[in-house]
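Let's study a protein:

___
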Amino acid sequence: MFAVIKTGGKQYRVAPDDVLEIGKIEGEVGSIVQLGEVLLLGGDTPVVGAPLVAGASVAAEVVDHKRGPKVIAFKKRRRKNSRRKRGYRDEITVIRITEILAEGKAPSKAAKPRVKKAKAPKAEAAPEAAA
């Protein structure tokens, strides 16, 4: 099953366990958020919204908040000694789709516990043999 959702002025085709980078949304890292603007539910019998599918939503886990790549806007007017350089970075939220919900159901899955990767211990140099 898949769905087409709209968030931040863009549309995304999502399925369970997909990881997306979308425009910043509210939510703590590790929490479950619901995205309510579902345009289409796909599967055996597709449901197309007009413009939205009534009662449908997508549950997603917030994985991370970060900043996107740097974008430089450089303008120059030839022979006028006029230059302008500006830059910015978008705020991005990384989400993992947990469920696609229809008919107004609530999300059943809780967020997965975050497990930090343990660093491997550094191999220490062997003590030098005293002669």
Remarks:
- Residues 2-64+94-101 form one domain.
- Residues 4 and 13 are 4 Å apart (CA to CA).
